[in-house]
Design a protein that fits this description.
The complex is a heterodimer of chains A (1030) and B (79). Among the domains of chain A are: 1-191, no CATH class; 366-495, no CATH class; 496-612, no CATH class; 614-696, no CATH class; 878-902 and 922-1030, no CATH class. In chain A, 16% of the residues lie in helices and 53% in strands. Chain A is built from 19 helices and 49 strands. Chain A is rod-shaped, with a radius of gyration of 64 Å. By secondary structure, chain B is α+β, with helices and mostly antiparallel strands. Chain B has three helices and four strands. Chain B has helices at 14-27, 43-49, 70-78; strands at 3-9, 32-38, 55-58, 61-65. The longest helix of chain B is centred in the first third of the chain and has 14 residues, at 14-27. Chain B is globular, with a radius of gyration of 12 Å. The chains are: A alpha+beta (1030), B alpha+beta (79). Chains A and B meet through strand 27 and strand 29 of A and helix 1 of B.
Chain lengths: 1030, 79
């Protein structure tokens, strides 16, 4: 194409364009003129007010109008007000309202208004009795299609609010809530076309909407800031609202909207919907995006995600304390109905917990919602999840206590189900209303209080169903004990009276079993046995069923297999204990239990009766146990280390703590045993002991006491007195140790001992007394030894008699009545630890003596009694008293008759006799007589055996067989008399120390008739004392 | 020929003392080599013999446990 041709074409095109431009300007001018004309007429104002009043049912007033041309063409009114018809109170005011005009109808001199814009309107609305805002009911009618009325038609297709403000007052009864303020409202309502009303493909149509005529509908876009009590949130919502049946009430309209909220105070939500929630208070902020579909008055589906922040909930009906998850995200799919919410999906995720919630809540009974809910969670850290567990619903202190004790581990709720009215659930009026199934994983913790063991690694399943708590496959470690599997039920966990049935297998640390407080053991006999248990260690495998009925103690049934256990009962230790222990509600049975007691093998069998009065029936047998252990166990004597062996069987029946209710029987064989029955223990004991309920039979016992061998047989009868009847024979024995218990603090057994027996000892010794062929009846009655029919030989003499010795803890007392025949003086004196070479002869004593005292000296001082002494066929040699008397007489000098040399040969006597009374250790006699061929001596006076003093008057007649004497005998003082017919008599007073006495002549007048009789001197020959004084 | 005796004992065991005394007396008449082992010195020994001490082995073979008399031991050694 040439340039000329191109230029021609452009010129033509410009001409056409210029024509259309001129035509357009003419048209606009025409339209403006027409538009202006119509407004000026004022009919339009009336039309508009009329339409607003008709559609909103409010009174409308509109200020002056002006035409707007430009980007937006329309009519602008000032000061629009919609007033309540009755009160005249403004519902809505707007400084300016712009009504947009359709241009084309202007050519026909018609005004079609298709959009109203409220600029900075202010609305004041009150909620109805249900708290709902009827904003849409106010605005939507304005978008209803119009019927033409003259030159005007109000065919609004769009309504806009710019920078609006709405204040909402709640009118609900009993509420005094602060108003909610919506500000910076930007709202666009656009009437929907028919196709839009039907919805896009794939969308669910309004309920019933496809089969009925579809009424008016709008789509909307809303932006606003919601404020209350100084805090606010940004709200955006867009969607559409359709009235399925033409009714323009929001609750009757079908809604399909998406709403986004940023940080709305949850309190605002809680104020309006909190009454429907079982929470006392909720704090925090809520945001998120949800889509709403449905008819609010019938059913709304809500789907979306909600973000919660700073969330705190007080729900004491569910939780023990306030829960504060902080931030959380909730993905939800909920179906709302006026009286019911169906939770198709509520998935909660927060830092601490996650859970899924399904089910329904309905409020058919106001303030008492009915819950049909199912919670489930993944594995959650228990410590964090604990506060979210609605344990208060269960009203079970047991559950709360256990949950509170957990310190570690995870829990997953496969389900938590609630089905019932909240009030009924809380009252637990029907057990099936609540339940849960939880999977535990590696839980650890410890219940507070004494005797509770820490637990860890606890896994398994816990189910609560119909008010019954089920344990399924629980395993874990409790203290040092391990449960490998536990299954069971706990009925009535929500009430006082519960019943527990549990079966558990595992391995127990016996030390922990022993450390259980006795108060937790049901049977008194178990508590009794437990009280005796000082130590228990080792491990055992158990398979046991525990059962606890309401208000009853635990009952156990099963087995405990013990391996290498150790235990200490009182002072007795058992080690390497193994065997099986069977449990039943009635008894605990020891089966094949063996162990070591003090290193010796012991087998035990028997039962611990949990119901009867005689709880124990235990049999122990051993090939050999240390005698000390057995003595300590059976008699409470000695030390477990005491030597010797005891073998045999012992059966123990009855109560452990009560001596009256226990019975010990069995047969024991002693080998080299030692029993500290006396201060000097019985040693090297061999023989047999047979026990029964009545006593002990001692069969062929042999042993040693204080180094002396003995044989013993007898019977011990617990209920009889004396308890012990025996026969004791010994070839040789020192009796001293039997009477030396003074100061012995371990004599309690000896204090109570009552015995009767016969003792035969070939050679015996008691202190310095030596016996042979000792035979005596012995009655021992609480430390008093009574000897009857005593006979023995000693020092070639014989002793007979009886006596008693009281071996008191503080002193030894005795009383003897004896006859001593023919015991040489030397031997006799040796009994009393005395020696003499001055007197020989054989002693005969008949009499009685008694004394008491802690020491020998004390007993000497306390000696009392009376006896007749007779010495026969002896010699007095160098007897100091006699020597001095004879020296005084100086007989050899005065008599031609020759006296024997007392220093060399002594004076042989036929008899020395005397009757002695003993009082507090002082011997007194009035008839001491020495009868000898060489002299006759008589005496009277006292010998103090304690101090060793003498005070005697002695008369001596030498040569009693000589009938004549020298004619004159020098007088030696007044104590020597020459008597007719050559009779000679001299008297002396002997006093002072017995070893070195003072001998002085004494006047004959001091002598009594006894002396003269005893000296065989006729009294008539003597000058009477009275005469001499004359 | 001397017989080798091994006696498993433990501290404080009265039966062990009895058995040792029996062995001592027999050793006065017969030629014996005696070894005494504390069963508690090794866990394995305690497990094997702990509940039946004293245990007497003659030439490595278990002969008696818990008790033995002089006559029984002599008969075993001579037989």
């Amino acid at each position: 194409m040439s340039a000329r041709t191109l230029f021609a074409s452009m010129k033509k095109l410009l001409k056409v364009a210029g024509f259309f431009a001129v035509a357009l300007v003419v048209l606009v001018v025409a339209l403006v003129l027409a538009f202006y004309h119509l407004i000026q007429v004022g009919e339009f104002r009336r039309f508009l007010v009329s339409e607003l009043e008709k559609r909103t049912r409010l009174r409308a007033s509109v200020g002056s109008a002006e035409v707007r041309l430009g980007k937006v063409t329309g009519i602008s009114f000032g000061n629009l007000a919609l007033l309540e018809p009755d009160t005249g109170r403004p519902v809505m005011t707007s400084e300016r309202v712009l009504v947009r005009v359709a241009l084309l109808p202007l050519l026909e001199r018609r005004l079609d208004f298709y959009e109203i814009r409220f600029q900075q309107p202010t609305l004041k609305l009150a909620g109805d009795e249900r708290g709902e805002v009827r904003l849409l009911e106010l605005l939507l009618p304005t978008l209803s299609p119009d019927q033409e009325q003259g030159p005007f038609s109000l065919d609004l297709r769009q309504l806009k609010v710019e920078k609006g403000e709405l204040v909402f007052f709640d009118r609900r009864e009993g509420q005094a809530l602060a108003p909610i303020r919506f500000r910076d409202i930007d709202l666009t309502l656009r009437r929907l076309s028919g196709q839009a009303l039907l919805g896009s493909p794939g969308e669910k149509a309004p309920q019933g909407g496809q089969s009925k005529r579809v009424g008016p509908g709008v789509d909307f876009a809303l932006k606003a800031i919601v404020e209350r009590n100084g805090s606010g949130a940004r709200l955006e919502s867009q969607g559409k609202v359709v009235s399925p049946d033409g009714e323009l009430r929001l609750e009757r309209m079908w809604l399909d909207a998406e709403t986004q909220i940023d940080s709305m105070p949850l309190g605002l939500f809680a104020d309006y919907y909190g009454s429907a929630l079982p929470a006392a208070a909720m704090r925090g902020k809520i945001g998120g995006r949800v889509r709403w579909r449905g008819i609010p008055g019938e059913q709304v589906q809500v789907k979306g995600a909600v973000e919660l922040s700073e969330l705190e909930i007080d729900a004491p009906q569910f939780f023990a304390a306030q829960i504060a998850p902080g931030g959380a995200r909730v993905e939800l799919e909920v179906e709302w109905q006026p009286e019911e919410v169906r939770l198709a999906r509520v998935d909660w995720r927060s830092d601490e917990v996650s859970f899924a919630l399904r089910g329904t809540l309905n409020w058919r009974h106001k303030n008492d919602p009915e819950l049909k809910l199912q919670f489930s969670t993944p594995f959650l850290p228990f410590v964090k999840a604990r506060k979210y567990l609605p344990l208060r619903v269960f009203g079970s202190p047991t559950l709360e206590q256990w949950a509170g004790a957990v310190e570690q581990g995870e829990i997953s709720f496969v389900r938590i189900g609630m089905d019932g009215h909240l009030s009924e659930i809380r009252k637990r009026s029907a057990p099936g209303m609540i339940g849960f199934e939880a999977e535990l994983q590696d839980l650890g913790g410890r219940l507070p209080g004494e005797g509770h063991l820490p637990w860890r690694g606890v896994s398994g399943r816990v189910i609560v169903e119909d008010g019954v708590l089920y344990y399924r496959g629980i395993k874990g470690v409790f203290g040092n004990s391990r449960i490998s599997e536990l299954n069971g039920v706990h009925r009535g966990i929500m009430g006082e009276a519960g019943m527990v049935e549990v079966r558990a297998r595992g391995e127990v640390d016996l030390a922990e079993l022993g450390a259980l407080p006795g108060s937790r053991l049901a049977a008194p006999s178990m508590a009794q046995a437990h009280a005796q248990l000082k130590e228990l260690s080792g491990r055992g495998k158990f398979d046991i069923s525990l059962r606890k009925a309401a208000m009853a103690p635990y009952q156990a049934e099963g087995r405990l297999a013990v391996e290498s256990a150790a235990l200490r009962v009182a002072d007795f230790s058992f080690s390497q204990v193994r065997g099986e222990i069977g449990f039943s509600p009635k008894e605990i049975r020891l089966e094949k239990v063996s162990g070591l007691m003090a290193g010796a093998p012991v087998r035990a069998s028997g039962i611990l009766n949990l119901t009867g009065r005689s709880p124990f029936d235990l049999t122990f047998d051993s090939p050999g146990v240390k005698a000390g252990v057995v003595a300590k166990m059976l008699l409470g004597l000695g030390s477990p280390e005491d030597p010797g062996t005891v073998r045999g069987t012992i059966r123990y029946q009855g109560a452990l703590a009560s001596a009256e209710d226990k019975r010990v029987s069995g047969t024991l064989e002693l080998v080299g045993a030692q029993f500290p029955l006396f201060r000097q223990p019985l040693r090297d004991l061999s023989g047999k002991l047979r026990f029964d309920g009545g006593g002990i039979d001692f069969q062929g016992l042999k042993g040693r006491l204080a180094g002396s061998a003995f044989e013993f047989r007898g019977q011990w009868r617990y209920a009889e007195k004396p308890q012990l009847v025996f026969a004791l024979n010994a070839p040789e024995m020192d009796l001293g140790p039997l009477f030396t218990q003074i100061g012995d603090a371990t004599g309690e057994w000896y204090d109570r001992l009552q015995a009767r027996g016969r003792v035969g000892i070939k050679r015996a010794r008691y202190e310095n007394i030596e016996f042979s062929d000792l035979q005596t009846d012995l009655v021992l009655d609480r430390r008093t030894w009574r000897l009857g029919n005593f006979s023995a030989r000693s020092q070639e003499g014989a002793i007979q008699g009886s006596g008693s010795f009281t071996d008191g803890p503080e002193n030894l007392s005795f009383a003897i009545e004896s006859q001593v025949h023919g015991v040489p003086v030397k031997g006799f004196l040796s009994w009393f630890n005395m020696k003499t070479t001055e007197v020989t002869g054989n002693v005969h004593i008949t009499g009685r003596l008694d004394s008491s005292g802690k020491t020998g000296a004390e007993r000497k001082r306390n000696l009392n009694g009376a006896f007749h002494l007779e010495l026969e066929d002896g010699v007095l040699q160098r007897l100091s008293i006699l020597v001095r008397i004879l020296n005084l007489l100086d007989l050899s000098r005065w008599f031609t008759l020759q006296l024997p040399d007392i220093n060399q040969q002594g004076i042989r006597f036929r008899r020395i006799t005397g009757d002695f009374n003993v009082s507090r250790g002082v011997y007194s006699t009035q008839n001491l007589l020495v009868d000898s061929d060489d002299l006759r001596l008589s005496g009277a006076g006292k010998i103090d055996g304690v101090e060793g003093d003498v005070d005697l008057v002695v008369a001596v007649r030498p040569f009693p067989r000589v009938t004549s004497a020298v004619s004159s005998i020098p007088l030696i003082g007044r104590g020597l008399a020459a008597i007719k017919n050559s009779f000679l008599v001299a008297s002396f007073r002997v006093s002072g120390s017995a070893d070195n006495p003072i001998v002085i002549p004494a006047p004959l007048s001091t002598l009594s008739e006894f002396f003269f009789g005893a000296l065989d001197i006729p009294k008539s020959l003597m000058g009477l004392p009275g005469e001499e004084r004359k | 020929m001397s017989r080798r005796l091994t006696l498993y004992t433990r501290l404080g065991c009265c039966l062990c003392e009895e058995m040792k005394e029996v062995v001592r007396r027999v050793a006065g008449k017969l030629a014996l080599e005696m070894e005494e082992i504390d069963v508690d010195s090794e866990p394995e020994l305690a497990e094997r013999h702990g509940n039946e001490v004293p245990v007497l082995f003659i030439d490595g073979r278990k002969a008696f446990k818990v008790r033995v008399t002089i006559r029984e031991l002599e008969r075993k050694l001579l037989g």
